[in-house]
Amino acid sequence: MGFRREYGRINVEVTVKKTELIERLTASRKKHEKEFNQAIALWRKDLAEITKNIDVKNLNHYPQELAELEEHCPDCYLEAYDDIIEMFNMAVKDEILLDSQAFRNFCRDEWDWKSDVSSNKYYRKVLKKK
Question: I want to staple 104 with a disulfide (CB 3.0 to 4.6 A). Which of 4, 31, 99, 110 is the partner?
């Protein structure tokens, strides 16, 4: 374990077992996949409801309802998990050195994009049910 100071913050480095790291990432990926599938199902339900009420023949502009729905479409971050899991699976060593940020991302499942997920109205509905 090592400590470094970067821009006034202390950055800690820790070595973790590759297998444990991959297990955590895989569990986080499964959780995100479930939440995404539930959120996108809610979004698709709203999309179906809105589109059935649009009179395409008399349409003169892009429907505002669709613009708002597009803005709130849940994003999927499975590729981020897949990339990291694949990288660690290919790692030669049985231990991986992580800094503080990587530890938060990979071990605690605290990614920068989590704020986008928590502010998305469809993800919020899914997360409220828990």
Answer: 110
